[in-house]
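Lab manual, section 2.4: Encoding a predicted structure.

Procedure: take the sequence of the chain (365 residues), apply the prediction step described in section 2.3, and record the output as C-alpha cells. A sample record is shown.
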Amino acid sequence: MKKSLIFLLFVIVIIFYLFNSSKQEYLIGSSLPLKGIMSDMGNSVKSGTELSLKIYGKKLDKKIRYQFLDDKYEPKLTQENIKKLYENNLFLLYGIVGTPTVKEILPFLNDNSIYLYAPFSGAKFLRKNKYVVNFRASYKDEVKKIINYLLEHNLTKIAVFYQNDEYGNEIYYDTYEILKKRNLNLLTAGAYKRNTFFITPAFNEIAKNRPQAIIMGSTSKVSAMFIKKYKKIDPKVVFCTVSFVNPDSLVKLLKNRDNIIFSEVVPYYKDKSIKEAVLFEKYFKKYYPEKKPTFFAFEAYLANKILLRAFDKLTFPYTPSHLVGIIKSTPSNFLKGVKIEYKNNQLLNKTYLFKYENNTFKELK
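Recorded output:
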C-alpha cells in the first residue's frame, strides 16, 4: 500500500512539473553596455542574440523572455542589474560583457547558485567556476596564437598596451608568461585607466622602448586613438588586438589599417565557406537592413543558437543546472562550419587571425 501511495505521489509530482513547465516563463537576463564607451559591443551582442531568437525561437514550446539591462561597462551597475534580475525570478544569466563586470558579480552568483552562460570575456577565472559555461575561447588562447604568429615573422620585441583592470591585466600576464616559456622577455608595457582616454603615460613608456609589435588589451576607441598617434612616430610597428577590441568599430575609426592583426574567437561572418556565416548574413540583412553585421553579433548569434537548442531539449526537472548540462553536451557539428568541443569549460577552442584589406577581413594562416 505504501509503495503504491509513493508511486502515485511521484506521478502527481511529475504531472505537476510537466504542466507548469509548459506555462512557466524562463527569464534570460543580461547586463551589458548599451550606452557609453563600449555601447557598440553591447548593442552588437544584443542584436546577434535577438537575431537567433527571431530565427530559431519560433519553434520552441517554452516561453522564454530576454531582458537586457544597461551597465555602461561599470561593474557596480552590473552588480545592481544582476540583483534586479534575480529578484524578477531569473532563470539564467547570459552574455555579460567584460572581465571586470563579470568578476564583480561572481560572488553573488556563487552565493545564490546562479548560472552564467557565454560571458563576453576570455578570463582564466571564468574557466574555473562551476556556475559559468563559456562559449568563446580564452584570452590566453588568443595571445598564444598572436605570439606564435609574431615569432614566425621574426618579431621578438613585443610590448603590451593594456587597460588597467582585470581584463587588461590578464592580457599583460598572458603575454609575459607565454614569452617567458619561449625564453623571451616582454620588452615593455603601458597601462591606462578603464573607461578613459588618458593614454599619454602608457604611450610614452612604450614609445621610448621602440617595440616591433604591440599587443593591445584595450577597447576599440582607445585602441584607435593609440594607433593613430603611434603611427606618426613608427608606421612599421605591428598592432595586435584581441577579440574584445571590436574590429568592425576599429576599422571605421582608422583611415590607415596597415600592420594591424585582429584576433577573433569566431570565423569571419562573411565567409561563404561556412554555412552558419551565410545564414547569419542572410538573416541579418533581412531583420536589420539598417545595421552592419559584426564579429560580436555573429558570436552572440552562435552562442544563443546553442542556448535555444538546449531549451528545446530541456525536460524534467526543468532546472538551470539541467539546461547547462545540455549546453555542455552540444554535438560537435551542431554549428555548421564552427566546431564545438566542450573542454576547459568552453565550447569553442579555436582562434583566428585577420588583416583588413580591400574593405574586407582576410584570415591569416
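Check your result against the sample. The longest helix spans residues 2-23.
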